[in-house]
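dude i think i finally got it to work??
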Amino acid sequence: MSKPIPVRISAGVPTGGQFAGTTRDDMGTDELAGEQLPEFPHWTDAGFAPDEVPAWLDDNGMGPDTAAQWRGTGFDAEAAGAWAYEGFEPQDADGWRSTDVDPQAAREWADTGLGALSARSWRLKGFDADAAQQWREKGFDGEDAIGWVHKEFSARDAAVWRDGGWDNSYAGAADAREWTDAGFPTPATAIPWVDQDLTAKRAKQWVKAGGPIGAGFDAESAGRWSGADFTPKEAVIWRRNGMDCTAATQYSNAGIGHAAAKAYRDVGIEPQEAGVWNDVLAQTDALPAHAAAAVAWKEAGFDLAQDGHDSGRLMASAELEDWVRTGIAPAESRKWDDARIVPEDAADWSRRGFDIDQATGWDQAGMDSGDAYMWRAQNIEPDRAEQFARDGYTPLQAAKLQHAAG
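look at this
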């Protein structure tokens, strides 16, 4: 039961005589009506039957005009008293009551400065008056606030992220939560990574990639590596091999992995040149060995040449590629080349077991590697083989003659 409002007796209203010693609590309705209190005609004028008056007087202490306003708005005496006790006028109370809220709660919402319909909108989203007030003080409406609440932000923290540039929406709240869960507690810690077009998940990977020894990536360096299409794990490996992002990118674009790149750099071969050597030597050695092989070929006098169509580009000569394909070591290739034996022939001589000196002797005797192989198989030396061949003998015939001669 709401607290009754005391009945105030206007000055000049008689209280003695027939009223002395008698209270309203001692009188029945008929007695009260028959007593003709000074204000009673006003109650009847206001449309109240005699038996209705006590409830309005006893519960609320209202005058007939006020009671008529409440009743005209659809309130009975008890409900009117409850709403009036909370300080509402009939019209306002009716508005609040239509939103299914009780008088006490309506007062709490009204004290926040919200009207009945606005308060109802907040209530339907699960807010009480105090919570709604906190969010409104930070500049949020109910629609925006609910997204942040679902992502477990307080009004204060949500305002920090919103003011830090995050979208004031469910999507903005979800993104902010991803950053906090990834270890970036404030916009100030997240923004450098956002500026590098990195998501919270990727940023966390870059921070974690460096390990506990201070080798981690800050936002700027992570942005460079990520922009060059390196994963955090790949970037760590390249850095451990002494490469910054620029060098790693150049070697990688040349088709060279981190291990081979380190080997090339250790011998002073830069990415562009390394790429050409890598292509030339790919058919021969394991990748890290290419650097040493490149040095060996260079020391043997086989170097790369300038591209005739692009002075800034290096290329391998056809001769170099031919010698590499023979499988003959660089220093030996130099000897064969100096003897004016072309790579294909040198490969044939070498495959049949002739060294450069032997091949030269047979070549001077006018024999190719195939013929030399057959004559040597009969234990016939180059000069004798040349004579026998001139006389029309085959290796086998010459061997028989030589054997018969003793």
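The beta strands are 305-307, 310-315.
im so relieved honestly
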